[in-house]
């Protein structure tokens, strides 16, 4: 089977085993593959369960919920019921997906969530007895770790028992299932060592990765080891993962670089260039993780314009493929989902099509989105002092002047929302050093909102520029500078830049229409007579 270019992460739970009443039918479970037939997805990366426990017939690991008498959540019980029922009737869930994927010519890579905290058995009803009975192997068990450390309840990989337990489950899967590779999801709670002992942990983790890679190759020479990691090389090293060393030693076949995996947010500004450069001339490939969730007050799952902006920016960095992570928020899958999938492998097709480049920001669901080690957010950012200037980087992949020469560019629109501002505040906006003239500006007053498409936000104004050619952004990085010139200091609420997005709109051809007749010229109405 050829090397996959478009991988699709299926978590096996949210759009599948959670959704169907027990006893779940084999045909229902096959939907995990059937829903992707006819798309350019050529590899299904299928999660085996919680990570500590799994949802297939394991002998060395533990079935999800096998020891539970009570459940903290009814849906966790349903997952156990469905998995157990399928296994007892001779239909191992993981084998169902493997067989169905291969039946329709798609590669199949099981996915293990390598790290996961372990809590109270009374409430942590997805956890394993191995972890509950071995709390002394947790990072926090050392006794000198801040309880607020994100990895406090995680397994400490300095312990051979932890590494062996993980390895045994991987080995069993490779030996018992017809797979084309195996994925270590290492970006799910990516904290593996005591924060003071990370440097000592680096060679330990490298040795374990090599052990897994050797087992993958021993089980099948063409099988691949995929590792999903934070997008920052420095961030990976800060938690014990020396990714560059892995590449140089040839012990990983595919690196999936990801950020904002906790809130699962769209981020077209991700930077994979260091990884791309590090793998140049090696056998290791780099896939960029594309998420689907915008999660703003206006938009939930990203429309195609958002996804194009992300994908084209990633392809422009020279990545070898894309990895579609956490797309189950689109389920049940409809036409818009398949429309997004259709174009993703083809940056040249998306080149002159509408895009929205968007900086991730806070939401009602995530008022402080979690970022991977080594990464930070550009938004939100205070802007409250008179004369204060705040810079933002917007990366785009559009060559606007190329397409303008053939009459294809329709509009280029910059949108900025500043909260805590009034009609008396004044701002200056510069793009790549050029001041944006007020003649291009439209302000929208949302100082107070009674309703919103998804949830309400605080007070603020939208500043919307329809950019002329003189002020267009360039292909690559663009610097947007916002200066607070005049401050309305009577209001206690401070200015806060909350949203920044850039939209590029195209025509299908020179002098083509956007709708049947452009909406701004008046809608075309077919006579009802």
CATH homologous superfamily designation of the largest domain: Glycosidases
The residue ranges in which pLDDT falls below 50 over 5 or more consecutive positions are 522-529
Q: Tell me the overall shape.
A: globular
| CATH classification class of the largest domain | Alpha Beta
Question: Strand pairing plus helix content: what structural class?
Answer: alpha/beta
Q: Count up the helices.
A: 15
Assess the beta-strand content as a share of residues: 15-25%
Could you tell me the CATH topology label of the largest domain. Answer: TIM Barrel
Number of domains: 2
Q: Give helix % range.
A: 10-25%
Short description:
This protein has 529 residues and is of the alpha/beta class. 25% of the residues lie in helices and 21% in strands.
What would your notes on this structure say?
- With 529 residues, the chain is of the alpha/beta class.
- The protein folds into 2 domains: 6-116 and 170-353, Alpha-Beta Barrel (TIM Barrel); 381-506, Sandwich (Jelly Rolls).
- The chain has 15 helices and 18 strands.
- It has helices at residues 13-17, 26-29, 31-34, 74-88, 93-103, 129-132, 160-176, 198-219, 233-238, 243-249, 273-279, 304-315, 335-343, 347-350, 400-404, and strands spanning 6-10, 43-47, 107-113, 181-185, 224-230, 254-258, 285-290, 321-324, 355-358, 381-382, 388-396, 409-419, 426-431, 434-435, 441-445, 460-466, 476-486, 496-506.
- Strand 6 (254-258), helix 11 and strand 7 form a beta-alpha-beta unit.
- It is globular, with a radius of gyration of 25 Å.
- The termini are far apart.
- The relative contact order is 0.09.
